[in-house]
Amino acid sequence: MHLSLNHKLIPIIEANTFSKRLVGLIGKKEIDFGMFFPKCNSIHTYLMKEEIDVLGLNEKNEIIFIERNLEKNKIIKINRSIKKTSILELPKNTSEGLKLGMKIDFIL
Asked: CB–CB of 43/36 below 8 Å?
């Protein structure tokens, strides 16, 4: 799966197993891909090596939350139903130009 943002194609890994959800981007440096966490309404950045951009998506993949350049050792909780919310973690500075309500279209 990929995402086209700002004329860049970003590989996206779906966190669809326990181990992928558990580890996520922990310990990664020079992050050049994103992670999609379906049915997830909170994340943390403990043990992260660099900042990331975080998008909260509703069940239609519309942006309901944006946090740019989120530092390590933070917790983000989106006050929505876990069944209707997903989180997309992206490399820092890649969410520029995105706004609340915009739809994210993944390329399979």
From this structure: no
